[in-house]
Write a structure and sequence with these properties.
Layout: E1 2-3, H1 10-21, E2 25-27, H2 46-51, E3 54-55, H3 68-82, E4 90-93, H4 96-104, H5 116-127, H6 129-139, H7 152-165, H8 169-172, E5 187-190, H9 193-210, H10 212-218, H11 234-240, H12 246-270, E6 275-278, H13 282-293
Parallel strand pairs: 1-4, 1-5, 2-3, 2-4, 5-6
Helix pairs in contact: 3-4, 5-6, 5-7, 6-7, 9-12, 11-12
Length: about 290
Amino acid sequence: MVAGPTAVGKTELCLRLAKELNTEIISADSRQFYRELTIGTAKPTSEELNQVPHHFINSHSIAEEYSAGDFERDTLKLLDTLFQNKDCVILTGGSGLYIKAVCEGLDNLPSPQPGLRDELMRKLREDGLEFLQNEVLHIDPVFSATAEFTNPQRVVRALEVFHSSGRTISSFYLNNKPRRPFKQILIALDRDRVELYQRIEERMDQMLFAGLIEEALGVMEYRNHNALKTVGYKEVYGYLDGDYDSQEMVRLLKQNSRRYAKRQLTWFKHQGDFAWFGAADYDEILNLVIDQMT
């Protein structure tokens, strides 16, 4: 398992590892599933995809909903098949909840107090999603680092859990882990913060040059899909709606991408027993994997 924030360098490193270990890659990026989303999700290029077999990239249509629970079920089934011929398989991505679903399973959450959901749904209608997101961000920064943070129903659920139990929803993710029939080697990548943010900003410039706005226009009818309420698309839709000009759109794309990377790091530092490496520490990572496999 190779995790880390956006633009840290997971794709390049995992390609090298997969070729060295003669294995395949499973993407745990909650937006790369969708065939219609390529530029804004920073998918591996066609050349990179052809170097090593990849799974769960371009596997679904944006017209479908695909949850962490669906991904858990389908990935465990796929792993049963792959492990018949492979000694290891690489799971990689930045979507913490989807990674957690495969490695640890998803926990049963407490039922809400009577009337609480109606009250929270009223706040959602009257005050908007951002109002509720700010409350969740204050009480549960770990949950706010997940793709679920953009889903109004999941934000409401996070507040339900907290106000009903006094515990954050992310705290339930840490308990009652099921036993998986495979060994897990957990690796997380990081970079110097200035370098990481520079890479993020350069990536956003490249996305815009490659046609991010045109891609967003092409899936405009699905803009209420959770995958399109995330960083990289929601800022473009604000520009297309006339809420701000192109200069402000670029500023927001870069600012929100940096903030998302920070939230991703928060998530991974609170989840599991990850061994942390610099993105350039290939030899050290390979040695760890080989040592753990023997």
